[in-house]
């Protein structure tokens, strides 16, 4: 169950090896966290992550299979992961890959993998999650989006469009669930220094998993639908969205 | 989700919404069969939803709407003994029986609570130091459980009676209760008011003089600092006798018909009540009180239930709602009261309504909140990032002092703190498990706290 600050006891993470998800669990461990399910494609790394989570306190951690690219199985895998805990107070959709834009844009199979992992798979999982939460009568869903999806750029449009798709899908579902006890929060971080981005070159206004975690949890507590990290991205992206196409395609970042 | 009977429920604090199916069942149902049919997702009884958080809801399960049971079953006009269905409200009892010269023996800050809810939360009022809590005036009650309907009293099924009084509705569905009302000559109160400069002054005044008054409560300015820390308005009094009334008051001295001024619309954004507006409100409230006033005559409704004059006053906190927090610490632990006020004041965590009172002895209710000592109630709007940590800090201070927090208001206590605070909780769990082994009756609160 959640407390009045929307601090959960039971959390399911899809994409359980995510650094941002771990930072969120680390913060929640200071509150009422009891049970965690980490679901992901690679059981070996998940088990390593699971032991890191148990080290955070008296927390019961289990691992489950979740492969966002296996579209025939995603819904069933999501349901199974959720069935491990008595109530799914918070579900975090953290599955995602960055891809390698220059080479991926010449390779249809790579494009398919990025889009499926970041958009189609998570969208299917989100649908299964909402169905479960309707039955249990409440729940929070945190969707890890990106500023890259809020403004898709030449340099990063495969990842960007996949996040744009997920972001729009999640906000559409949030509208559908408006005024119900099921709450969807979309968090849009800028460049976050994590293992997913270690090969990419750092950019200005980069942030950390801990900062994203705190901002996301505050957003859930206050019932916000969209969280920018850092917040100053909101006016910047607003401005960028109004650039003429001719300038847009020449953006240096 | 969208079946006709699905309702979105919250407590009065409007945090933690959850969807449950509403059940309207006849009071003479075949209860064991009915409850067993609900075993898959569980059920809890709900009255007017005045507990502050998740005690009267079961997300994903069902709730029994008890407010449809409000018939008077028996009234002894000489003795003041009233047998009434559990969904009847204290408001209804006051309106109906004041004219016969009887008043509710214990009333909380609102009269819009049901008898069943008052028993389940073992509510208290301004007279706890003299008269104890609500269930101290309950002679007997009928409880529906999965194993049958049982009559409980101090003589009959004593253990289950004491588990039910303050048991947060987890022992079964309270169907009716027999209450002992108190005789009054009028619906007016004779009230003395003192405005005190700080917390020490109000606490010593209460220690020295509370025994002279049936009712006593202090309102505290939670944002006053330094030498004014805990400045307060203390109001104390008793039911006014006929010979203490004058003029208009003598026309219908036993007519209890308070009116609601207006209903707060659901348009307030969160954040209207913040440390600035709360400071202004506190300042005005403090200034408005007389420095010292003796023997003023007030209507019982304005003395006991000032907030009831505005329907849905909880809406002014906005959609994010607020957290009520009330604790009690034994006498001798006055420091905890002062330290917590200091903490609130230092963190600029303005509590809109802060109330201090002295409790008399506890009763035998296993999960009943009141115990001899000082109790402080706070309410804080959701918003400040420091709030969860602040409450955890208060919990630790309260636990250390041998005190406890009030479950009817709880929204966030940790399981480990709860188990330390309520020393008879294991006995309570045993009793509940013996009458309801598959735990059909449960609530979001019981799931959250592992009760």
Structure characterization notes:
The complex is a heterodimer of chains A (253) and B (451). Chain A is α/β, with parallel strands linked by helices. Chain A has helices at residues 19-28, 43-54, 74-83, 101-104, 108-136, 147-150, 157-176, 209-221, 233-240, 245-248, and strands at 10-14, 35-40, 60-65, 90-93, 139-144, 182-189, 226-229. Chain A has a single domain (10-248), classed as Rossmann fold. In chain A, helix 5 (108-136) packs parallel to helix 7. Chain A starts with 9 loop residues before the first strand and ends in a 5-residue tail after the last helix. With 451 residues, chain B is an alpha+beta fold. Helix content of chain B is 25%, strand content 25%. Chain B contains 13 helices and 21 strands. In chain B, the strands form five sheets. An eight-stranded antiparallel beta sheet of chain B has the order 16-12-14-13-19-20-18-21. In chain B, helix 9 (334-346) runs antiparallel to helix 10 (387-400). Chain B is globular and about 60 Å long. The mean pLDDT of chain B is 95.
Layout of helices and strands:
The complex is a heterodimer of chains A (253) and B (451).
Chain A: E1 10-14, H1 19-28, E2 35-40, H2 43-54, E3 60-65, H3 74-83, E4 90-93, H4 101-104, H5 108-136, E5 139-144, H6 147-150, H7 157-176, E6 182-189, H8 209-221, E7 226-229, H9 233-240, H10 245-248
Chain B: E1 6-9, E2 18-23, H1 31-37, E3 43-46, E4 62-65, E5 72-76, E6 81-85, H2 90-97, E7 102-103, H3 115-120, H4 128-131, E8 138-145, E9 148-153, H5 158-164, E10 173-180, E11 182-183, E12 188-196, H6 199-209, E13 215-220, E14 232-239, E15 262-263, H7 275-288, E16 292-299, H8 300-304, E17 310-311, E18 322-329, H9 334-346, E19 354-359, E20 373-381, H10 387-400, E21 404-405, H11 415-421, H12 425-435, H13 444-449
Parallel strand pairs in B: 2-4, 3-4, 15-17
Antiparallel strand pairs in B: 1-2, 5-6, 6-10, 7-11, 8-9, 8-10, 12-14, 12-16, 13-14, 13-19, 18-20, 18-21, 19-20
